[in-house]
């Protein structure tokens, strides 16, 4: 009942006209960004981080949450009409959705994706509302060694499972951990890896790194691969949801929700894994398996529901444990930290009004997204026609202005350029950027918890693994890695069909 009361208070805050406008701004930006191939929610949140410092924390986080949910919605439009997923989680939608569009059923594909996203997003947000406070209560009882174990799980799974190669993921994580060490050691007061540059004595701002790898790096990478000539977009054709389409979609929506949400809560589970599992489940359970590969509506409904349910699931470890398990979640943690707020078990105690307003805004944003996606789909198609040179030039300009606005120091622009070029080469050679940002954010926290554990145990390393919770966490890590190997093998089979 306490959660219900707190949620109602959150609705009272989120329903204020100013916050409703911020929610609308977030979901609109998120949808527009999700529609554009190669630009994801992580880039948009990173780009807007420096530009929202004038807002209060609640307003900024409502905008970012709207972008997060909206980006998941918008990716389906590009996948269905262009056969070019805006986000990796939308790859599966392209399999069946684009075939439906080419067969003159594009309107039905877009409708089942939008409605499925709404259903899954709402159910998953309800589950977030119920589970997050309980998990936060448990997390308060954890000790330093337990947090070290959680961070090791996050490091290992995010680095080993994101991207095409575990080795490259671990290398990206190592680079992030190194960048996190740059600055002044809080314990000894000694400068580390600053090369005598006074600007680096305070460390490299997370916002600068996030904007560098996601905005500058991604813009350079996508610009280097631009296609020349006009983009061919399949017209939105056919009827919207018929009775037959409703009958074939509602079960996949529910199945996708309950596949996506728990996987989203697991480190490195995320939307990618859940969409592939949902697609495989729908293909196995379908009464029309012969339609898969030729435009089966179940292959759009299930994965899109799983995609959005996983997006809500990712918020569970983020809000309750402070663990980002995806690229966008890592940037949202940076947004929290830029306001001096640390996501974790004390968030629901120290910042209760803000976090419940944030959760309430997710419900409101879901309704807004349904209204935006169904009637305005032709407008989103127009967004696909924006000339790419103008688009990416604008991104680079806003990245530079936003970074300079953080500290009003020119040296930050040099750091931004260096990190942006590094991010470009990482993307060019298949190194995932998410582990870098996760390592940068969690690295200093992990170092602090390791030191605290060793101080309590008087230097005994066994204290890091003898805690019951830590032992269970490491056991779960082994199981996760084993399951991930099996899932990845299945995922490669599905990707070969695209």
TrEMBL record:
TM region(s), chain numbering: 20-39, 108-135, 147-163, 170-188, 200-223, 314-336, 356-377, 389-410, 469-489
Swiss-Prot/TrEMBL keywords: Membrane, Transmembrane, Transmembrane helix
InterPro entries membership: DUF112_TM
Protein's UniProt keywords contain Transit peptide: no
Domain DUF112: 20-437
A Pfam family recorded for this sequence: TctA
Protein name as annotated: Tripartite tricarboxylate transporter TctA
Organism: Lentzea flava
